[in-house]
Design a protein that fits this description.
- This protein is α+β, with helices and mostly antiparallel strands.
- It has helices at residues 2-21, 28-41, 47-53, 79-93, 102-112, 114-123, 125-137, 189-200; strands spanning 69-72, 75-78, 142-146, 149-152, 155-158, 161-165, 179-181, 205-208, 213-220, 223-229, 244-251, 254-259.
- The protein has a ten-stranded antiparallel sheet with strand order 7-6-5-4-3-8-9-10-12-11. A two-stranded antiparallel ribbon has the order 1-2.
Length: 260
């Protein structure tokens, strides 16, 4: 009986600690929902622009980067659930009846184009090897190169202006409703090389992990497809930001992957 009481104490303690750790009371989730919602209403951001900048790791991607699960929107949710919930809400602003099917349509397209994308990597193999080597030298973990927007970790360059989010210390989210100008900041020579090389091979985002590198060809909500490279030659399956749905080994540590 005593062992059961002690066990229950630890379970309850872990639960309480978890709720504090998951920032249940700070309401950062509500603040960000209202902020992103205002983009679709007050500022009337076109749907195409909203989709572009809400892709994985772009400037309006809400997903926590360091936490697989957090308390958000009245429940403990995974990173992917938060992205999908936000998309469902904002898609109503654009009166999209097919919104619920869009993630599946995206993943299906990744499957349809699999052979074409694998051939593309084979045709540009030396360029991808160069890009992987450059990223390997870099200390940075996230790169984004889109039309009018570039990102290196927490620094963004948009229309020749450098800026970053002002993120509260306890917030698990990678964005906020406030930004600050980074007037004296400039991307380094290596960072510029990586961004330029990404453009050459049609990669819009890169995520570097302890085990390898994800090269994103396209993304929607938390879903993405593209390439993965690992010096060990092994595919990474335990990263909460990439739930691998299917993959194909290409050559020399490169894979084609689809993540949902």
């Amino acid at each position: 009986m005593q062992k059961i009481v002690i066990l229950l104490f630890f379970v309850l303690s872990a639960s309480v600690f978890g709720q504090d750790y998951l920032n249940k009371t700070e309401k950062y989730d509500v603040e960000l929902f209202n902020y992103l919602d205002s983009l679709t209403v007050e500022k009337k951001v076109p749907l195409e622009e909203y989709l572009k900048f809400s892709k994985p790791f772009s400037k309006w991607d809400i997903r926590p980067l360091q936490h697989e699960k957090i308390y958000a929107l009245d429940s403990v949710r995974t990173s992917s659930e938060i992205s999908n919930f936000f998309w469902g809400g904002f898609s109503q602003r654009y009166e999209l009846k097919e919104a619920a099917d869009k993630p599946n349509q995206f993943l299906k397209q990744g499957m349809i184009d699999e052979d074409r994308y694998i051939q593309f990597l084979k045709d540009h193999f030396s360029e991808f090897k160069t890009l992987a080597a450059l990223v390997g030298k870099s200390r940075n973990l996230i790169y984004v190169n889109q039309s009018s927007l570039q990102r290196v970790d927490g620094i963004f360059k948009e229309n020749n202006r450098y800026w970053s989010y002002v993120i509260p210390q306890k917030s698990p989210f990678p964005i906020s409703a406030k930004i600050k100008a980074e007037g004296n900041y400039r991307f380094s020579s290596l960072q510029q090389q990586i961004l330029e090389q990404m453009k050459k091979v049609n990669i819009y985002s890169i995520v570097k992990t302890d085990l390898g590198i994800f090269f994103l060809l396209d993304g929607f909500s938390d879903n993405s497809y593209g390439y993965y490279f690992s010096p060990s030659g092994m595919l990474e399956n335990n990263n909460h930001l990439f739930e691998i749905m299917s993959s194909r080994n290409i050559s020399d540590g490169f894979y084609y992957y689809i993540a949902n």
